[in-house]
Amino acid sequence: MKSWPGLLLRSMRPRQWIKNLVLFAGLAFDRQLLHRPAFERTFAGFLLMCLASGTVYLINDIADRSQDRHHPLKRNRPIASGQLPVSVALVTAVVLAPVSVGLAYLLSPSFAALLLGYLALNLAYSFYLKHIAIVDALAVAAGFVLRVGGGVLLIQVERFSPWLYVCMTLLALFISFGKRRAELALLVDSAKDHRPVLNGYTIPLLDTYMEIVCAATILAYSLYTFSAPNLPENHSMMLTIPFVLFGVFRYLYLLQVEKSGGAPEDVLMADRPLQVTILLWGLSAMILLYLQP
After folding, report:
1. Angle at Cα 176 formed by Cα 171 and Cα 182, nearest 5°?
2. Shortest CA distance to 171 belongs to which of 108, 228, 219, 100?
3. DSSP 3-state helix, strand, coil percentages of the chain (rounded to 5)?
4. Are residues 58 and 184 both part of a single domain?
5. How far apart are CA 98 and CA 112, in angstroms?
């Protein structure tokens, strides 16, 4: 039998903490990545966001344990499978939530307020918002925007473009709709037993949503490369657009041809072309930002 600490850590889903890396967007795109004090503050905020998001996953698994037992993969989660007692998970979540906010206050009162808002949003999501079609996806997108905003609050940002908030919102919606499409395709007739909100979606409807959001994401990012105030004046950032195009199209391919996408973090960790694309996009963007006058 596995120990409770190990089961708690597994329930906090460290693989999904990769989402919190968007906290570094403000640091990177404001050309402060090499500024040590700003990097240290952002890294500390990243760790606290991981602690808060881990708490959210504990609460979510407690709330969803009955539905998760109907899922072919999620039924093996520690709480759904009964390996981790609900009482242990609940006490841990009740302790970690105020601890994360308290430590965040020592780092920055404004960041602590944002982290508290993030926890409140996810509590509302776990018990109410995720049961409302479309609103559930918007709530997920809002969580990503709060992460970006948290990174901005932690440093003295000079010229952070609001276009990046738009891009992050659209990208999060794109992935969120894709996840629901993958779940519908996987669970078929038992979808409503696992996630009742899936009754409000159909695969053709989600395909339509994804087409709209996909086009808007590419357009918003393209406009960012031409109009953001802190980018090279020769518009060389437009050279990163092909990487965004390929990344979006690759995710659509994985979703519809390879039948993956139910867990976006697993797709990112497993698909080499997508990893290479993200790496090349990041390297090219940083080179253009930091090595040009």
Report:
1. 125
2. 219
3. 80, 0, 20
4. no
5. 10
7 and 75 together in one domain: yes
* Stated pTM of the model: 0.87
Overall residue count recorded for the chain in this entry: 293
**Contacts with 20 (C-beta within 8 Å, 6 or more apart), sequence order:** 46, 49, 50, 53, 147
Q: Which residue has the tokens 């159909």?
A: 202
Tokens 């020592």, residue located: 106
**Which pLDDT does position 190 carry in this prediction?**
58
CATH at 139: 1.10.357.140
Q: Which two tokens stand for residue 45?
A: 């905020």
Tell me how far apart the alpha carbons of residues 133 and 281 are, in angstroms, rounded to a whole number: 33
- Among 113, 140, 160, where does a domain finish? 160
Task: Answer yes or no: do 24 and 76 share one domain.
Answer: yes
Task: Kindly state whether residues 149 and 209 are assigned to the same domain.
Answer: no
Residue 243: pLDDT above 60? yes
Contact 89, 62 (CB under 8 A): yes
Helices (H), the chain: 4-11, 25-29, 36-68, 78-81, 86-107, 109-127, 135-154, 163-187, 191-194, 203-227, 241-256, 264-270, 272-290
**CA gap 285, 293 in Å, rounded:** 14
**Mean pLDDT (the chain, rounded):** 87
Average pLDDT for residues 280-287, to the nearest whole number?
93
State whether 82 and 214 are in the same domain: no
Cα-based distances in Å from 35 to 28, 43, 120, 156, 230: 10, 12, 32, 11, 17
Q: How far is CA 36 from CA 41, 152, 232, in A?
A: 9, 15, 23
Give tens-digit pLDDT for 173-184: 998 898 888 888
The residue range of the domain holding 290 is: 161-293
> How far, in Å, CA of 194 to CA of 68, rounded?
6
